[in-house]
Amino acid sequence: xxDADKIKLTILxxxxxxxxxxxxxxxxxxxxxxxxxxxxxxxxxxxxxVVYIEHxxxxxxxxxxxxxxxxxxxxxxxxxxxxxxxxxxxxxMWLDSRLKQxxxxxxxxxxxxxxxxxxxxxxxxxLWANTGTTIVVDEEEKKxxxxxxxxxLGAHIKSDYDGLELxxxxxxxxxLPGITLLxxxxxxxxxLSMKVxxxxxxxxxxxxxxxxxxxxxxPPATAAGIVYDxxxxxxxxxxxxxVAEQTGATVVFGHDDxxxxxxxxxxxxxxx
Length: 272
Prior knowledge:
Its cofactor is Zn(2+). Keywords: Hydrolase, Metal-binding, Zinc. By secondary structure, the chain is α/β, with parallel strands linked by helices. It has helices at residues 71-74, 80-83, 95-101, 139-145, 214-217, 230-247, and strands at 8-20, 43-54, 60-63, 111-113, 134-138, 152-153, 156-157, 166-169, 173-176, 179-183, 192-198, 202-206, 250-252. The protein is globular. The relative contact order is 0.18.
């Protein structure tokens, strides 16, 4: 089997945010206590990434859409520019730069798979307006993301995705042979994870914000400050764990500053 007959997967870092760790990890060992009331907060790196996939069928897919260049102004109204600044990023990391490095236009992507519609995962989705690309989200995510009036509801900014034609799924769905979207709600109404079965590297599960970091996964699983439905979130973590154990998968977390350093990333550094 040649590389042309295999799924080819590239992880592309798209800039690093910083935030207080409590947003990502409610860990009692890190919190203030009666005897340590002045404990300093943990200000941590939150790397972001997208995943570009070339399928042997000839189809091209992109998992998530990264953070926006204009994050400071776009996120100002809800105040997320202060609590999640995208303050460690180079010109080559922005999504439009990544597409140019791949010699692609947005319309060259056949499927844009959005794990959920938060501002750091769907911010560049409007690049795919009127391109013919199939944009896939969870059915419950779409319902929730249009359930409010005004600029935003938490980390959902409606202008990121308003007006786009969104194709929905309501069960675990194989998009193409070897590429399956798993329903893993809890972080939001309809957060998705992506399972990719690779010929040489084995199965990889991209958990997005179903699992922010290695500590989130555990065991035991540790919840976060941004979780829509904690009961569903814990169930989704165990679903991912079950699939990973059955397949021997590598689980890739959504914003783990240590793991990303140990993954092959960038154009040309792909997995098969």
